[in-house]
Amino acid sequence: MLEVNHLSKSYNRSEVLNNISFKLLSGDIVGILGENGSGKSTLLKIISGIVAPTAGDVRYVGQLSSLLEIGSGIQPDLTGEENYYLKGELLGLSRPDLKNRIGELNQFTELAPWMNHPVKHYSDGMYMRLAFGIALTLEADIYLFDEILAVGDTKFQQKCFETIINLSQKGKIIVLVSHNITELERYCNRFIWLKKGEVREQSDSPQVLDRYLRDQLMGSDPNKILPWQHASLAFSQLSITNEQGEQRLTNTNEIWFAAEFQILKPLSVFNVTMHIQDHSGLPIFSISTSTSAGWIHEKKPQNVKLSTFVESGFLNAGTYTVSFYIQIESRVFQLRNLFFLGVSQSESDTQSHLFSGKIRTNFQWKQL
Amino acid sequence: MNTTRITALNYTTREYFKQIYKHRHIIRSLVRRDLKIKYSQSVLGWTWAFIQPLTALIIYSIFFRYVFDFQFDKYPYALYVLSGILPWHMFSQNLHQSSGVLLSEQELIRKIAFPKFILLLAKSFVSLIELGFGLVLLLTYLAIQSGITWNILLLPCIVLINLLISMIIPIWISQLSVKKRDLLHLVPYLVNFGIWLTPIFYTIENTPKLLSTIIYANPMTGITMTYRWVLFGDPFPLEALISPTLCIGVLLLPGIVLFKNFDKKIVDHI
Predict the structure, then answer these.
(1) Interfacial residues of A (vs B; Cβ cutoff 8 Å)
(2) Which of A30, A65, B68, B151 could serve as A140's disulfide partner, Cβ 3.0–4.6 Å?
(3) Distance from C-alpha of B91 to C-alpha of B5, rounded to nearest angstrom
């Protein structure tokens, strides 16, 4: 059990955390999200007892293990094994206890042949494996990890997450701070969104992530970017609706995009490309005028209305962003994350479990 | 299972010592780390712990005996010098190592929760172990030279007082230099002047009145003379012990209390 009650922290009268409260139970894997400077790291530091709060308190039962930064407390002059003992002892474990568990560490990190070499001769990847391995091997009841899952190769990351899930099944509490929304969504059963030092939202539902993303990408208001003005062109409007002209989008709707431009000066080349990305910024697909049939890229001053649509059932439910790249003569202007696109799961769609990934196709198998 | 509670309140003195006791394993691993880094990464290893006091002994003895023609005939001059250098070495080691320890160990302070007084304790243990090596050397010499008396049973007491005195300045400088580092710049001067204001190479009887008053005010004078009382049967230095007693009462204890109250704020300032 980990309980945070009305926690506040200020440095030199500027408030970093303000009245934070939450309660975690054993088995919880909690994702803490928030932009840089929202107080996530300070919160973890207070929970680990490193920084003292200005008001409020934290209570927990059992032992706490924290890996707040990769390589925290690792001494480059000592060997991998010596570092393991040092860190273990700093956390209060006895030497025989640590000796019993070193096999487990070696199995996890696959560093056995290197354990007697000074850590300064390790590669970055080995260094990280050691640090993470040490933090995970040391038995505790609560584990705190700050921004550490972004590093390492896929295989090792996979291993880390498997271990984390194992720990949670054993009733441990795991607190993750990460900017990788996909990972949080996959592994966490609880989410706490910090904004400007306050808990903006906390919930068991991953929908918090969508709202967080929307807030992140849009600064809450897409109209901040539009209308976009250039010497020879204005991009005045973009609307996204379903086939009935409604705002609500599900994965069984067609998704219609309508964009309006005013061309102010004669242009010899004018092209528009729309990019759809998933919430982690991974490109999904693009639609461009330059490959559209009948598009004339020479334009006189005029109003140009463009429209396109994505077939129903093509985009799976999820959170997407819309970016526009506008080519004027030989220059390309990038308007990133113009719009936030939330596609929800349609109730009439009964086959969604058959499709993984962001897009759904109707490619077929044929029996030969 | 034990419950941990983290609040904004300062530790009470009792709590603080409890916390130090609870985290005593940190002292052990820090000491082990320091010794390992210092000694196990050299070819001569632990021999260095002997070489250091030996070279100092040889250099200073030669200078005072043969260059300055210093007269001393109660017992071998080398013993006299050694019994002064060892306590002084503990004092200066602490001064050097512990005064900036809150800054030099900031990585640890930022990553692990523990009472920071432990950092000072760990450094003093390292200096204590080094003193131990020196004392083995000294006692061997003494045993061969003139034999050891029962007085030696008092040695642990004087070592402890020596340790306490050695911690006083670091306790103050370490906490005061977290925000502004000026005091840290004073450390080398303190060490360089201090060694001459302690009767390590000379005897206090041969010094002019004004100077001897200053020398008596130096707590390390009392410490050094007490070592010689214990080891060689020199007269008991009652006068010289006033300063160490006052220092422990007036500077050490309040220093620890202030350190304790500052403990939770240290990390905010480094």
Answers:
(1) 11, 45-62, 64, 66, 68-69, 72-73, 75, 77-78, 82, 85-86, 89-92, 141
(2) A65
(3) 37
